[in-house]
Amino acid sequence: GTTANQSPVTGPGRTADGHRVLLQANIGSPEDIAAALAAGAEGVGLMRTEFCDSYAEVFQAFSGYRVTVRVFDAGSDKPLPGLSNAGEPNPALGVRGVRALQANPEILDAQLRAIADAATAAVAQVWVMAPMVAHEQEAAWFARRAASHGLTATGVMVEVPSAALTAREVLSHVEFASIGTNDLTQFTLAADRQVGALAHLQDPWHPAVLRLIAQVCLAGQALGRPIGVCGEAAADPRLACVLVGLGVTSLSMAPGAIADVRAELLRHSLDQCREMAKSILE
Ligand code: PEP
Ligand code: MG
């Protein structure tokens, strides 16, 4: 946390030499709005909708900013009746995320319709993204489905290694990607994020995870697509600098983490961030 004798730094996210990095909030319910606004969040990088469908309220609160809505990510750690299958032998690898939506397209359509309706009335810029994408065809399917509701700012979460390794193909179908480092770490290290005994392996500093992130950033740069991070890694001030050095353009985190990340970014130039990234990758 911020120590009491430090005066808080405010304003948009940037490095010491002025390279802009969007600092956004993760929102899981309308109760998070006040904290996000108080922290000076530059919009919402991840609106989790599994337990929150107050689209209009969130869009209203972030008028003039971008709100990135993730459609239902059912299954495993987020069981949703009617969308996820109880009793799978390995729920983290089961019918979840975009897979569950492909099995129940009417549910995705209803959600996209509700988001589109709320977006029409809002001044916020509404982006939508699909969770747990593993294959470029899932990205293409989601983008078509969203466009049929007038939602054209479409993206994917990159949180499965196959999506990171094929980021160029995946990104060719959508406008942006947001890296979910919680699941990306879980799947890269084959360590269930819900098993406490494996917590030491849930480590986004692992070079394997960072090399995957570097690949996604290179693909984003090649195709001109912004690449965000919305997992816990974005909330670690030192790792946030490394992510910026890898080419990440926005960081989304719990509102309480924004102040420390903002302050740490201001202590390093973009070149210093790149140097940190380079040495960690090696
Ligand atoms: C992630 O996987 O990093 C992520 C942001 O999504 P969630 O934690 O909701 O799975
Ligand atoms: Mg995830």
UniProtKB/TrEMBL annotation:
GO biological process: phosphoenolpyruvate-dependent sugar phosphotransferase system
Domain PEP-utilising enzyme C-terminal residue range list: 10-267
GO molecular function: kinase activity; metal ion binding
Reported cofactor(s): Mg(2+)
Alphabetized UniProt keyword annotations: Kinase, Magnesium, Metal-binding, Transferase
Similarity comment text for this entry: Belongs to the PEP-utilizing enzyme family.
Protein name, UniProt field: Phosphoenolpyruvate-protein phosphotransferase
Taxon lineage: Bacteria, Bacillati, Actinomycetota, Actinomycetes, Micromonosporales
Encoding gene per record: ptsI
Full protein stretch here: 225 to 506 of 506
